[in-house]
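protien #1 (seq + structre)
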Amino acid sequence: MNIGISEKDRKAIAKGLSHLLADTYTLYLTTHNFHWNVTGPMFNTLHTMFMGQYTELWNAVDPIAERIRALGHTAPGSYADFGKLSSLPDAPSKPPKALDMVAILVKGHESVAAKARSLFPLVDKASDEPTADLLTQRIALHEQTAWMLRSLLEE
């Protein structure tokens, strides 16, 4: 494979993207869980908001996985793989209160934004512009979503 990025850099970038993919999928699953299980006076608002968020996350996993493949590596795709690679906790088995769900999702989005940002030095050094573009989009989305969710926690 000769795309202008060394094998060593492609492997390291793919590894970082695999962690990002696992975190994104874990956050997707948690958000979808909360969409199903939210209750209380904010039900309609949060149910609808969570649907938009889990849909966006679902649509994000494919480009991340496909970038890993374009770099010549296999994308993780099992719950076992994601469990090993994700830095996010699994969704609680007992649904939390609505605002606790919001707080959990804030932390998740902040964590995924930080994970994506941490890949930039390697991606920049390797002149991997497609991955940099992907990361920029993910960071902006996660930071914006965290801000919107945090706004719900303010009094």
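ok now protien #2
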Amino acid sequence: MSKLNDRVFGLVMLVVAVAYYYGATQFPVPFGGTEAVGPETFPKLLAVILAICSLYMIVKPDADNPWPVSRTFLELGIAVATLIVYALLLEPIGFILATTFAVGTLCWRMGAKPLRSYLTGLISGVVVYVLFTYGLELPLPLGPLEMS
């Protein structure tokens, strides 16, 4: 039965990957024309990786494994809720604060101490912001941290 579950999940994730890729193609063309690396590059790359992994699950599912205990489902629910809240908060509070919250919460739920977790989130947010904004020239929202 687990092989069927893996195949169905793989099929669902393949549909999600195609929809995600299509959504990435709908981003408006940046001012000045198309670029080698634009706002759609990272989502398209993620969609391709998800599609490859989904196809692998469909073609070669795992052998029967027992379902995880209810605590694991709770932790997965917290992780999904954290990522949904992250997506909703990205614009209003900015990339650095939203990333601090998301990475910090996920690290904490995986067993790290809260202070270290959120410090890791803050460092991750700042480093990724700097890399994207100055390295790739793809500005990320700063929210209330943006100076007028």
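Residues 2-25 form the longest helix (24 residues).
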